[in-house]
Amino acid sequence: MKIRGTLIGFTAILMWSLLALMTAASGKMPPFQLSAVTFAIGSLPGIVLFIFRPQRIRLLRQSPKVWITGIGGLFGYHFLYFTALRNAPAVEAGLIAYLWPLFIVVGSALLPGERLRWYHLAGAISGLLGTITIVSRNGLSFDGAYTLGYGAAFLCAFAWSGYSLLTRRFDRVSTDVVTGFCLATSALSLICHLAIETTVWPADIGEWAAIVGLGLLPVGAAFYAWDYGVKNGDIQIIGAASYAAPLLSTLILVASGFAAPDWRILVACLLITGGAVLAARDMLRPKPAGGEAIAE
């Protein structure tokens, strides 16, 4: 069950690696409008399931803390991320925001039944270094004038890692509830859009296809897979492996002609892959006849 949950968690990372490409192909729709539309699309699979299996609607009856955690995680992350990008350079803000895998690995030590070992932390740090290698291709320059944006990016990382860790504590809550989280995030994003943005609709069928793809995969199925993964898989391995998303995203952009190849990508590949393998040491190494790995 743990291996299956970990692998399903990996699929979320794979889907998030498509986020940059699909966003680039989606045209000039403002961020909160794009969030409102894609999260509405992302909720459709769950809605269809409820239509054919109405008895599952009762699974949405959860305590307020579950709803606060879920909506706070999905909407809170995106609200803070967009705020960061509006108030700081995208590269630096994105790098700070991507501290969340490291926060998950370190924070997992506070979860019942989890034990943080040196190779979990080393794997996460290796992944972080790989991410820095990718995003700093054109240089990094942290300027105090962007303190608000940097702060929002840090809170963004804290929001997603906190959501992921708290979700682990709600392991008995069905993943069906993610449908409700997506609907609520869509509604809140729409409110933000109407308040501060000008509506822009896609110019052609290609942009519409990219937006639908975003809603079905990176902003849809990925959140269902992540919910199942962090509840049932090895959250430390999933957290460290999450640094593969920006690497895969860059490789996809290069393959699609949206970015140029660079030697730094190879270095990042080695750091991120090596870090993920190191963090997954317990899962990959053979176990003794007794069934348990030798204690260190």
Give the helices and strands, then pairings.
Blueprint: H1 2-16, H2 19-25, H3 31-52, H4 64-87, H5 90-97, H6 100-107, H7 118-135, H8 147-169, H9 177-196, H10 205-232, H11 235-241, H12 244-255, H13 263-279, H14 281-284
Helix pairs in contact: 1-10, 1-11, 1-12, 2-10, 3-9, 3-10, 4-5, 4-8, 4-9, 5-8, 6-7, 6-8, 6-11, 7-11, 7-12, 7-13, 8-10, 11-13, 12-13
Could you give the count of β-strands?
Answer: 0
The general outline is: globular
Mean pLDDT: 89
Main beta sheet strand tally, sense and closure: none
Tally of helical runs: 14
Radius of gyration: 19 Å
Distance between the termini: 24 Å
**SSE topology string:** HHHHHHHHHHHHHH
The total number of structural domains is 1
In percent, how much strand structure appears in the residues?
under 5%
The helix fraction, in percent, is: over 70%
Class from helix and strand fractions: mainly alpha
Low-confidence stretches: 289-296
Labels describing this entry:
296 residues; mainly alpha; globular
Structural description of this entry:
- The protein is mostly helical.
- It has one domain.
- It is built from 14 helices and no strands.
- It is globular and about 45 Å long.
